[in-house]
Amino acid sequence: MATAPKITFDTLKKEISQRQFKPIYLLMGDEGYFIDKLTELLSEMVLTESEKDFNMQTFYGIDSDVNSIIASARRFPMMSEYQLIVVKEAQELDKFDVLDVYAKNPMFSTILVLNYKHGTVDGRKAVVKNIAKIGIVFESKKLYDNQIPAFITSYFREKEIGIDEKSAQMLTDFVGNDISKLIPQLEKLEISLPKEGTRRITSELIEQNIGISKDYNNFELQKAIVEKNVLMTNRIINYLVTLPAKEYSPISTIAILFNYFSKLLECYWLSNKNEQSVMTALGLKFPIQVRDYMIGLRNYNVKQAMDAISYLRAYDARLKGVDNVSASSEDLLKEMVYRIMH
Q: CA–CA separation, 142 vs 126, rounded Å?
């Protein structure tokens, strides 16, 4: 949105943690997780437990009146620096735009939090523009599949738990980008770890607690294709296509391979193709991440990498029903991988 300040979840979380508060927070968008986490953090940081009794109010949009919310926001806190007002389900609030009256002249001793889920307020509206001038307008967007491994890594890092790239990718392949389904799986893994000592999520732990195979997944499939290991490639595909649709989609395989070959293509233009140069060019953090690219540079030339990208695009369309009458997902996957590897 052109009128909203460009602020990330991490930046906003840091500001709130440092008690750098704004008088109004409009937290909106399709990803409820980030909205809930920021609201929880504000609840923890703005008031102490004893201050909440007199200085925290929660409204629900479906049965609240805008004028009542404004009247509450204009009150002074009792024996506290701030009062906190949270409006949940603000998308259900009748006459939401009337909040512009308050946004033009807010109380700086009030922290007003508007949780507007499953959509956004039109950024051209005066209420949004005026909130942005003195407060925060944050759009919580759904993460793309390729952003989920980094989210998983960050989630565990905050809890001082390690996780390797393969394990993060296994979880991504299994759950996808639905964070509401992902978090319970991450919590299940966290509970399974020892309370003391080194705490680390491994592929073995995931297999034991969530049921994802550590040997037959998209991460291992990519590795087999890069190594041109035909036998292992077919074994993994044979396993993956037997999984329920909620656990595996061929489209996820195509997305991962497309990302890999697109990055591999960048490596061919490097003047120096050593591990450090590849790490820098691709923005990789760990040497283990470079392995597949170094092997790929040996096993595939530029034309083969470009052909692989073309095949992936074509079979993505066929798996979605374009120019495909009767071929099964298994047949299409095997045919696609054969053409990439040969």
A: 26
176: nearest Cα among 120, 218, 129: 218
pLDDT tens, 160-183? Answer: 999 988 888 888 878 878 898 889
Helices marked H in the chain — which ranges? 9-17, 32-46, 49-55, 66-73, 100-103, 126-134, 148-158, 165-175, 179-192, 203-209, 218-226, 230-240, 250-267, 275-282, 291-299, 302-319, 329-341
Q: How confident is the model at residue 51 (pLDDT cuts 50, 70, 90)?
A: very high
Q: Which tokens sit at 245?
A: 């649709």
Identify which of 214, 193, 217 has the alpha carbon closest to the alpha carbon of residue 204. Answer: 214
Query: What φ, ψ does residue 260 adopt, rounded to 5°?
Result: -65, -55
Q: For residue 132, what pLDDT is reported?
A: 94
pLDDT at 7: 83
Strands 83-88 and 56-60 turn out to be: parallel
Mean confidence (pLDDT) of the chain: 90
**What is the CB neighbour count within 10 angstroms for residue 172?**
25
What is the DSSP annotation of 319-336?
A: HTTTT-SS--HHHHHHHH
- Of 214, 213, 157, nearest to 186 (Cα)? 157
Length of the chain: 342
CB 244 within 8 A of CB 329: no
Contact 273, 267 (CB under 8 A): yes
pLDDT category, 248, cuts 50, 70, 90? Answer: confident
First to last CA, the chain: 46
280-327, pLDDT tens digit by residue?
998 887 677 788 899 999 999 999 999 999 999 999 998 888 877 677
Q: What pLDDT, on a 0 to 100 scale, did the predictor assign at position 325?
A: 66
Question: Which domains does the chain carry?
Answer: 9-140 (3.40.50.300), 144-212 (1.10.8.60), 215-342 (1.20.272.10)
